[in-house]
Amino acid sequence: MSSNKLFIFGLVISTLISSCVNHVEPSRVQIVHIYSDVIGPKDDNLFHDFEKEAKIDVRIHKMSFDSIFRLLYTKRYSTNIDMVLFKEPRHLGLLQQTNLLYAPKSDPEEYWQPVAIDPLIFKYASDSSQNFLTYGQIARSDKGILVPSDELRSTYLSEILTHLSKIYPKYSQSAWQEKVRLTDTIYPKGIQMINWSFHSELKSTDFRYSMYPDQGFYGAVGKETGIAIIQNNPNLTNSILLHEYCRRELWRKKLADRLGIFGLLSYEENRDRYPFIAQPETRTVKK
Known about the structure:
This protein is an alpha/beta fold. The protein has two domains: 31-117 and 223-280, D-Maltodextrin-Binding Protein, domain 2, CATH 3.40.190.10; 119-218. It is built from ten helices and ten strands. Strands 1, 2, 3, 4, 5, 6, 7, 8, 9 and 10 form a ten-stranded mixed beta sheet that branches. Strand 1, helix 2 and strand 2 form a beta-alpha-beta unit. It is elongated, with a radius of gyration of 27 Å. The N and C termini lie far apart (94 Å).
């Protein structure tokens, strides 16, 4: 073979090799960013099973909800916020104002999902005073008055009473309001005051007994922690996969244990009762 042929052959091989090299790109790391006001980087063990199963790296960024909201509201699509895990229902209302929440075409109503709940409980000073076990019993009796905690009174009381009026259609919201003590009204003898608060407030030693009102078919009443996807984010496919993973009751229990509240039952199995459905049933907690 002449030197010219060797040179041409070598040039062809060199060109092929360089062509192959130029077209080989490093594989893109699969990732999803979650911003939250309730969990942070130290809680990454919540997603270890998902990361192993889906081969997607979950990055958790802890930030106050007000800061998350300002980022989304001002920078719109120029943030790296893929998903938001938020603490309370009022946060969902603010997220809706950004018009950035993603909803699957198959179900436009499903733009977020509740994953945990901080249920309302009845608190009693003694075991013998637990005469009311359900909201229904309170509604039907003229002997029980609910005394809301300061947090309940200042946040979701109106929404809770509206929901109770839907559960018990015979009793309007105004009828429920008459069952709630909002002032220093003095009630006649024989009326029982039932201290009413969120589970997360159960710290006072003044109440040795507490219980979750048994709602039977209706589940628990309380405030929910939820998760939502931000639309048009660069990791949308990964976000959808993680959103689906968060439906698993085992994961919801892990999250709820971390937050000191309760995991929600699956949305699909309890759609007609959504959103006030939780696992805790009637039970008494002794301090």
